Amino acid sequence: MFTIRTLNNIAPTGLGKLSEKHFHIDNTAENPDGIILRSFDMHSMPLNDNLLAVARAGAGTNNVPVDQCSRRGIPVFNAPGGNANAVKELVLTGLFISSRRIVDGSAWVQTICESDALEKDIEAGKKNFTGPEILGKTLGVIGLGAIGVLVANAALDLGMDVVGYDPYLSLESAWHLSPSVEKADSIEDVVAKSDYITLHIPLNDKTKHTYNETLFSKTKRGARLLNFARGGLVDNDALKEALDQGIISRYITDFPEKELLGNENIIVTPHLGASTPESEENCAIMVAEELRDYLYYGNVKNSVNFPNCTVPYNGKPRIAVSHRNIVNMIGQLGAVFTKYSINIDKLVNNSKGELAYNIIVCDSLPENEDELIRDLYAINSVIKVRLLK
Ligand SMILES: NC(=O)c1ccc[n+]([C@@H]2O[C@H](COP(=O)([O-])OP(=O)(O)OC[C@H]3O[C@@H](n4cnc5c(N)ncnc54)[C@H](O)[C@@H]3O)[C@@H](O)[C@H]2O)c1
Ligand SMILES: O=C(O)[C@H](O)COP(=O)(O)O
Fold first, then answer.
1. Is 271 a known active-site residue?
2. Residue 116 pLDDT grade (very low, low, confident, very high; cuts 50, 70, 90)
3. Can you give the pLDDT at residue 336?
């Protein structure tokens, strides 16, 4: 029986993938084997010693202490693409409300609704809410992953020119991206030619304040900036200066911060990107299945810190070992299996960055299993060993 702690509301269809026979779901468990969360900030929370895995029912994992998890041999799973359509639809909404003054206009109508001359007042006042069409304008897309690709392709369908930038473009994205998207060589190139700019990159140490004073100084005058990725990607002081100078005409963000409120050229939504029943279910189902497959079989799919590694279950016991990605680890692991006369049925070893992960399927196990596990742990650079039978 595995105990799973939930740190946010997780769609019941997802949790339903974790059968009651094998999983106990508890939102107060002190020593869970697995954690499922959405945006809960885990950074200030201690990780219990027996924790095996963390599953983020969404895309961004900046709320999870991923480095600490890696050091402890804990995979962090997420749901790549699970909420991408929901975000794309909100970004398109953002594109329109950044252009046409729909939000201010409808708020104004409410203020004059008691007027006796409503129709006359509306016709006189509507000139204050004019805004340009997006047809034929240029959209710059920074980050062409699951969301960026959908946004770029949809904007082409709406008659925009699209220029994209992603120095780490994946094969998957390249397959789906329309060839009509112009590929920029630099972020500066994108912001210099775009009337609308949308951010779709993760927040991490390298991307914090990507949009800073220097980048604003290179931005096309009057551009509209959309941020449905993370607040920390934009330096708010530099943004406010850019708004004052007219470099940015409107900023639309899904990440409310006090200093952004009360400015008529900033529209803030309450982190609604993934808040659709469809994406909440998609993400919950994806991560529940990933977690289940890891806890049962050691298989890894869609982890941000562990390599993909899947060996179909064939009824034989298996040992999962994570270790630092350095030379001669397979040799040392093999020597331990030889010592216990274990015939290896299958061994898969994959690596990601500084971490490597193995699933070793065994024909049989020795009687002194605990000693075998101790010997595996005794190999320098081994991080975690799990016996699954
Ligand atoms: N508003 C919301 O509710 C909401 C919902 C989902 C995701 N998000 C945010 O959007 C981000 C992107 O989501 P996704 O599903 O597209 O993720 P993704 O991993 O599929 O795509 C991210 C892309 O950014 C690229 N990238 C990384 N660093 C870059 C840089 N410096 N310059 C240009 N490109 C860079 C990567 O190569 C990748 O292609 C998430 O990390 C998350 O923070 C927000
Ligand atoms: O990174 C994500 O997936 C989004 O920011 C969605 O966050 P949420 O699951 O808390 O809505």
1. yes
2. confident
3. 98
The ligand 2 atom at the shortest distance from the C-alpha of residue 58 is 3
Handedness of CA 254, 268, 270, 69 (dihedral sign): positive
**Of 172, 259, 264, 278, which one is the catalytic site residue?**
259
DSSP secondary-structure letter at 276?
Answer: S
Q: Which amino acid is at 74?
A: I
Using 50, 70 and 90 to split pLDDT, how confident is the model at 339? very high
Distance from residue 42's CA to the centre of ligand 2 (Å): 14
Which domains are delineated in the chain? 1-81+277-306 (3.40.50.720), 83-268 (3.40.50.720), 307-388 (3.30.70.260)
Quick one: pLDDT band at residue 114, thresholds 50, 70, 90?
confident
Say which residue the tokens 């804990």 belong to.
74
CA 59 / ligand 1 centre spacing (Å): 8
Task: Give residue 60's identity as a one-letter amino acid code.
Answer: G
- In 3D, which of 363, 324, 325 has the Cα closest to residue 341? 363
Which residues, other chains included, contact 135 with Cβ-Cβ below 8 Å and sequence gap of 6+? Answer: 158, 159, 160
Mean pLDDT to the nearest integer, 197-215? 98
Minimal-distance CA residue to ligand 1 atom 44: 229
Instruction: Please state the atom number of ligand 1 nearest to the C-alpha of residue 61.
Output: 41
- Name beta bridge partners: 23: 2
> What number is the ipTM of this complex?
0.99
The answer to whether 323 is a known catalytic residue is no
For residue 35, the CA-to-ligand 1 centroid distance in Å is: 22
* Contact (CB, 8 A) for 288 and 36: yes
Query: Closest ligand 2 atom to the C-alpha of 61?
Result: 1
Ligand 1 pocket residue status of 148, Cβ below 6 Å: yes
